[in-house]
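Quick look at the format.
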Amino acid sequence: MQLTSLRELSHYNRWQNRKLFALLTDVDDMQRQANRGLFFESIHGTLNHLLLADLIWMSRFTQTPLTFQVTSLAQILHEDFNDLQQARSELDNNIIQYIQQLDETSLQGDLTYTPSTSTNKEARSLPLRRCLVHFFNHQTHHRGQISAVVNQLGLDIGITDFAFMPKEEFQL
């Protein structure tokens, strides 16, 4: 994957998260926290999982230690929806900044890390480019789950297709 495509994906990620959180603002906490049969049970649990996983990956990418202990991939970082939304917004901007500073040479290297929640704590080494593709794909996967639940609640998130991201959302 080319650097330009990764940059586009970072902006797509922010665009979709903004849309999703804006839509969910009108959903009450009980509905957001109800068990919907998702991998992380609720909309709120899944949004927390995405934030947690993204923070873990960003700490690996930037080689910066996390400021908290990871206890589980279902760990709730923010009980309050507004706090979760603020943390998501800040992280999305940090993701864009991180991707923006990468160059093609850095994408040729490997990322070596130790899983934080796996029972197998052996170091892994994967191409950075592959890790970044996984990073963005993982986000899309779980947002898709939430999108289906939102649809069942009678709400319409609108267009989520990458190809239809408005130009104003992506400015290099």
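Next, a different chain entirely:
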Amino acid sequence: MVKLFAVALGGSVGAATRYLVSTWAAERFGSDFPYGTLVVNVVGCFIIGAFLVLVTERAIVNPYWRLIVAVGFLGGLTTFSSFGYETLKLIEDSQLQWAAYNVMANLFLGFLATWLGMTAARAI
């Protein structure tokens, strides 16, 4: 039950963070492109890369932190289900160029951010 609470705690903070970032991005950049989803996916990839390197290679931490951060918070924050829906919606709306940009940007920047997070954590 404690493990479930740890995941739920992290997930609720991650989901609230996703909502705030998505709202901010839509207000800042407009809603023609799913900028909020892109931002949380890239940031989430960076965090998971850095965090898991730190807790598996650099420091001994309570295993509940992995549940709170990697499973809960990042599970609530990152939005690949939203990514899938928004990309297909762009395709349905005949916005093929925006759909392709969305896929390429999320994949490239996500992998890049994960690598940067891992590299940064290993440099500490």
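The chain has a mean pLDDT of 94.

See the schema section for token definitions.
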